[in-house]
Amino acid sequence: MKRFYAVPTAGAAAVMLLALTVGCSSSSSSTGASTSTTGGSTAGSTAGKSYKLSFIQGVAGDGFYVTMGCGMQAEAKKLGNVTVNIQGPTQFDPTLQNPIIESVTASKPDAIMIAPDDVTASQTPIDQAMNAGIKVVLVDTTLNDPAGAVSQISSDNLAGGADAFAAVKQLVPGGGQVLVVNTKPGISTTDQRTSGFAAAANADPKFKYVGVQYDQDTASLAAQVTLASLQKYPGIVAIFATNLFSAEGAATGIRQAGKSGKVKIVGFDAEPDEITALQQGTVQALIAQSPYTIGTDAVDQAIDALSGKPTTPKIGTKFTIITNSNLSSAASQAAIYKTTC
Hints:
Layout: E1 19-20, E2 34-38, E3 51-56, H1 63-79, E4 82-87, H2 94-106, E5 111-114, H3 123-131, E6 135-139, E7 151-155, H4 157-171, E8 176-182, H5 188-202, E9 207-214, H6 219-232, E10 236-241, H7 244-256, E11 264-268, H8 272-280, E12 285-288, H9 291-306, E13 314-317, E14 319-322, H10 330-335
Parallel strand pairs: 3-4, 3-5, 5-6, 6-7, 7-13, 8-9, 8-10, 10-11, 11-12
Antiparallel strand pairs: 1-14, 2-4, 12-14
Helix pairs in contact: 1-9, 2-3, 4-5, 6-7
């Protein structure tokens, strides 16, 4: 999400680099900002026909969605005769995103690529778009009933949560209590990350999973719930923060509890500010997704659907665990999110 203000702590411990070929999360206004790109003249599968695509982000300005949009723009240029318009709410909030969905539907694009802000609240406006004959590709997040979408493209968030716990085990091999700090219930990706982490932690007798605390996607509340949890469970040795704001707030809560360097943080995503936090020791590991690939795949699936070709119902993309010790590797550098295309 938006910003991550790093608070220096003790040095980071090393974690093994894991690259998995499975796949993804993270919130812009009813009059969100929009950009567009028109494909070049490269010969592709569009055969001279023009296609108008729209990408509705989960939130505008977030590096994850910026990087995804860059992938879409690159693929549109590669295919030729494809336009991608990009809009999103200023917060990850369905009450802000839904009017954008309705407005985009009214503009009648050929396809919409969208990261729904809620599995339930986003259902009706997306169904309305599909009922209007618009092809829909779900990217990153999903819906309770995604049946009408031509494809769902995301990271494997259950596996991502499990790998977050694998990172914890590398950081704290002796075990102890572990906590999840999450955004809010009802977001498919972060819910799955929590479930994957909890299942892995509960299967290891060295560790005790003490549950999940929600921060409503605000760093200040994340700091409060972290501080309260550290007071309630003094044996906490590591925290899995499911997104950027959660990691930021968890770091603040740890500092306020006087446990900097003693309680490890594994965060999700690889925004530039998160990389800075990793270098400064505020977090000890980051699980980076592949939003650029999600973007290119989304355009391909949309165009295939529009041209009558078979589509792939579900596509998983890889993620990479980045630590301070492997940050300079080519794989880690390639995984860092973009701020502009």
